[in-house]
Amino acid sequence: MYIFEYLQYGFIQRALLCGSFIALLCSTLGVLxxxxxxxxxxxxxxxxxxxxxxxxxxxxxxxLYVSLPVVMLSSLGILKLTQRARLYGDAAIGIVSxxxxxxxxxxASVAGGFNVDLFSYLFGNILAIGxxxxxxxxxxxxxxxxxxxxxxxxxxSMTFDEEFARVSGIATERLNTLLVLLTAITVVLSMNxxxxxxxSALLILPAVTxxxxxxxxxxxxxxxxxxxxxxxVGGIFISLALNLPTGATIVLTNFVLFLFAFAIRNLRHxxxxx
Amino acid sequence: xxxxxxxxxxxxxxxxxxxxxxxxSFIAVKGDYIGLVGPNGSGKTTxxxxxxxxxxxxxxxxxxxxxxxxxxxxxxxxxxxxxSFPSFNPYFPSTVEEIVSLGRLxxxxxxxxxxxxxxxxxxxxxxxxxxxxIRNALIGELSGGQKQRVLIARAIxxxxxxxxxxxxxxALDPEAREHFFTLLRRLNADRGTxxxxxxxxxxxxxxxxxxxxxxxxxxxxxxxxxxxxSSDRMTSLFGANSQHIICHxx
Lengths: 274, 250
Known about the structure:
The complex is a heterodimer.
Chain A: H1 3-6, H2 10-35, H3 41-59, H4 63-84, H5 89-111, H6 115-123, H7 131-150, H8 152-160, H9 162-167, H10 172-190, H11 199-213, H12 217-242, H13 246-273
Helix pairs in contact in A: 2-7, 2-10, 2-11, 2-12, 3-4, 3-5, 3-6, 3-10, 4-5, 4-10, 7-10, 11-12, 11-13, 12-13
Chain B: E1 4-15, E2 18-29, E3 33-37, H1 44-51, E4 59-64, E5 67-68, E6 78-81, H2 96-101, H3 116-128, H4 144-156, E7 162-166, H5 174-191, E8 194-198, H6 202-208, E9 211-216, E10 218-224, H7 225-229, H8 232-238, H9 240-249
Helix pairs in contact in B: 3-4, 6-9, 8-9
C-alpha cells in the first residue's frame, strides 16, 4: 500500500498527528533532562504510570485521568526527595519508580481481571488513539511547548549552571518544579505512543542523537525535534508496511538515527584529526 | 561617606552541626577592591554564597545596594564567577557566545529575549577577554584557561557595580592572569566597581586589592593593607615572612 493510501485512514491521521506532537514534546524536554543528568526520570515516571493505569482500571476510571495527577505528584516527590532527603536524583527516581510498579502489580493481582488492558498500556497502541485522546494530547503538548519557548533562556541558563542562574535572579526552584511537572505530563501522554516500557527511549534517544551533532543549544533542540519527528513518522509507516508493532518500530528507528549521528560525529572528528 | 554596596550583619552559618561562619559583619563601599583570604574550609565560599542569596544564613542579614537581600531584584548590577567550573557535561552543546549571553538575562523582563544592545554588550565582553576568535567554539572544546575566560566574560558582560569572583585565576596562564587583573583594576578605578576576590594567592593579592579580609569562621581582619601590615595580630596569624611578602607586593 502506498503512503497516500495509508493517509486516507482516520486512525493513521490521528496516529501521525498525535505522535508528531508527542515527539516534539519528548525531544525538547529530553535535551534538558539528558544535559541535567536526569534522563532516567522518564523511566521512573513511566513505572509510576504503570501503577496509576492499574489504579484507573481498578477504579474503572479512564486511566489517563488517573495517571496525570498521580504521575505529576510523583514527579514532585522525586524533586523533594532529591532536595530534602540528600539523595542523588537516581536514588530518588529509584524509590518512586519501585513504589509505582509495586503498587501496579499489587492492584493487578488484587483485581485479577485486567491483565489484557494493562498489557496494551505497557506496549502502547498509537494506531488505536481516539479523537478525545488526540485533542487532549495536542492541547497539552501545545501548552507544554509554549512554556518551554517562553522560558527558553531561563531553562538554558539553569541547565548550564544552576548557581549562576540563581544569581541572575532566575527562580530556579520554581523552574525545576515546572520542568518535572512538564516531564510528568509528557510521560503520561507518551504511553499511548510507545507504551510505558519504552517511554524513556522517546525522551533520551532524540536528545543523544542531537548531542552528537549540535553546535549550539538551540541547534541541539532543533536536531532533537527533527530526529524525533522523523522516527515517529518513519516508524509508523515502516510498522504498517512490514506489519510490525508500531511503538517498538518508532524506538528502533530512533536508535538507527542515533547510530547514524554517531557515525557522522566520528567521521567529522577523524577528518579534523587528519 | 560612599554609599554602602554590601552590608553583612552578624552572619552565622552552620553545616552538619559545625559552625562554618560566626557573627560575620562588614560593610563594602563603592570603590572597594577586597582580597578575601583564609585557609581551606574557613568559610570564604560560604560567605559569598550567603551574600548572593544562594545559601541562607542561620542568623544575621544581608543588604545589597541598600536593600534587604529578600527584596533585592536588580541582579544585573552583580557579576559572579563561581569557585569551580560547573560540573558540566563536556559535550554541553553551547557556544562561547551563547554562554556569555547568559550574563545578560539578569537585566531582562519576562519573556527574556536578547536584543541588539545585548549583542553589543556580548561583543564587548568577548573582545575584553580576548575570546572573540573562539566565539563559535563549543565550550567543551576549550582548554581550562579559555573556559575560565568565558565565565569571566559572562560575569562582566553587564558592567556590574559589584563583582564577586571565587578563585578566578586558578586556570589562567601568567599572561591571561595579568590581563585579567588589569581589567579588574580598570573596572574598579574607572567605574568604582566593588570587587570581592577570593584567593589563596596571598602572596600577590597586595598587588591588586586595596583592602584585605582574613576569614577563618570569623572575620579576623578587615581593613587596608597599611593596617594589615602594622597589625601584630596578623603577624602572629600569617607569620612575619608571609606578612612581609604581602605588604612588600602592595
